Structures are given as structure tokens and as C-alpha cells.
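Quick one, C-alpha cells below. Sequence please?
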């Protein structure tokens, strides 16, 4: 299953990087004479209400989804790992304050927290990426903090302290490598979650703005024609489904391989 997920993600990366270059159809070119045309040999996924090629727009939208997913997940991993590692290692007052802040943030549903923040900002790819990354690090911070509390009492950490090593060296050289397993799993699963969140925001009109295509905005535009042009929602929906499933399968595979407590 992990290999299947890796194959899907590899196909997505290949599509996002070279797909728009190889496409003969322009994702922004309108042709009202061919509006709402069904899938054919010319337009493999049909056309939308403005006569634009759906396949070209789905391929172009993969760039947006992959960019937002990877960068937002990267920002989330950076914040969650750093804050959790520092809070768990320093303990006492720092840990107590950090956990209370996390408790407050976790009281708000993530999607409402994102909507509240993005309501005051101009919708764009950069805004969506930053908002998703800044509102999705709390769970990872809790996970890293818990692992750090266990690891810092191990003998090799006490030996490092006895040698007079600095806290920075202990954190980066001795603690962080032992946390890579859960962080990699959380990061992989986080990409799929970020892609899904971006699509939800674009579906609501708060994400990527026209004329730039996004899978969420394609679904939103196609819902008005779902009874007469099924391809406008089916193909972007399948692309979104396959992408999120691929990242989830890859994350589960990483967990099975990297977690020594899993049964072989």
C-alpha cells in the first residue's frame, strides 16, 4: 500500500512539473462554441461553461495543490517540531505555558480558525499556504513534546549533559534524530490534510482566485452543472481523492517501517 501511495505521489509530482508544459490545450483559453462539451478525443475530460479544457485545468490545478500542500505542511512541521521540542526539553514554566496556549488553540475547530484568519487577508496562494501552516502545527507539537519528555530522561542525554554539551547541541544532534520517525509520518499525513483544506477554502471562494484553477474552485464551478455536465465535478474530485489517498497511504507506510513498536 505504501508503494501504491508513493506511485500516486510520484505521478502527481510528474504531472505538476511537466504536465502543463506538455499540454496542447491552454487552461485559460475560452471557446464558447465548445462550452460544456462532453469528454472526447479532442478534450479528454470535456470542457467547462466557458469552453476551457478541463484536463488542462486539472493538470494546472495540481501545481497549486502540490505547492500549497508541501509548503504548508513544511511550515507546520517546522513550528510543531521546534515548539514541541523546546517545551518538552525545558519543562517546568516553559512547558506549562506552551501547553496552555495549545489547549486554547485546540479548542477552536481548525477550519473555523482558518476562516477567521483568512477573512482579514486577501485570498491568494501565499495567504492560503501561510494560514494552513500556521493553524495546523498544534497536534504535532503535542506529539513531539511527549516524545521529548521520554527521551530527555534516557542515559545518552544524561551522558551528553555530563560532558558539558550545550542545550542547542543536545537538541539538534542527540534528540532531534530520534524524533524523525513520528515527524516524517505526521508530515506526510499533513500534506494530504493541507491539500484537502486548500480545496475546501477554494470551494468556498476564499482560496485561490480565478482565473487560476484549483481543484476546489473547479468543484465549486462545476456544482451548478452537475446534472448536465458530470465531468466538471467527477474529474477534479477524482484527482483530489487520489492525491489525499496517496499521501495517507505513504504516511501509513512510513509509520509501519519507522516505528519499532509495530508488529512485523
Amino acid at each position: 500500500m505504501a508503494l501504491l501511495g508513493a506511485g500516486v505521489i510520484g505521478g502527481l509530482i510528474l504531472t505538476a512539473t511537466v504536465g502543463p508544459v506538455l499540454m496542447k490545450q491552454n487552461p485559460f483559453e475560452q471557446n464558447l462554441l465548445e462550452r460544456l462539451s462532453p469528454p472526447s478525443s479532442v478534450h479528454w475530460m470535456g470542457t467547462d461553461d466557458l469552453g476551457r479544457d478541463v484536463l488542462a485545468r486539472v493538470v494546472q490545478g495540481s501545481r497549486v495543490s502540490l505547492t500549497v500542500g508541501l509548503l504548508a505542511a513544511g511550515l507546520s512541521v517546522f513550528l510543531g517540531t521546534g515548539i514541541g521540542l523546546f517545551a518538552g526539553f525545558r519543562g517546568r514554566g516553559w512547558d506549562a505555558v506552551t501547553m496552555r496556549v495549545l489547549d486554547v488553540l485546540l479548542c477552536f475547530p481548525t477550519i473555523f480558525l482558518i476562516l477567521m484568519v483568512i477573512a482579514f487577508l486577501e485570498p491568494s496562494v501565499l495567504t492560503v499556504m501561510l494560514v494552513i501552516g500556521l493553524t495546523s502545527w498544534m497536534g504535532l507539537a503535542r506529539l513531539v513534546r511527549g516524545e521529548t519528555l521520554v527521551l530527555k530522561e534516557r542515559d545518552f542525554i544524561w551522558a551528553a549533559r555530563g560532558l558539558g554539551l550545550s542545550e542547542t547541541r543536545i537538541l539538534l544532534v542527540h534528540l532531534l534524530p530520534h524524533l524523525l520517525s513520528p515527524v516524517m509520518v505526521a508530515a506526510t499525513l499533513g500534506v494530504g490534510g493541507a491539500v484537502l483544506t486548500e480545496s475546501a477554502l477554494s470551494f468556498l471562494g476564499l482560496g485561490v482566485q480565478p482565473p487560476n484553477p484549483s481543484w476546489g474552485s473547479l468543484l465549486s464551478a462545476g456544482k451548478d452543472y452537475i446534472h448536465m455536465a458530470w465531468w466538471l465535478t467527477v474529474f477534479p474530485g477524482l484527482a483530489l481523492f487520489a492525491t489525499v489517498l496517496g499521501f495517507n497511504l505513504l504516511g501509513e507506510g512510513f509509520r509501519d517501517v519507522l516505528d519499532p513498536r509495530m508488529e512485523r
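The chain has ten helices and no strands. Residues 54-90 form the longest helix (37 residues).
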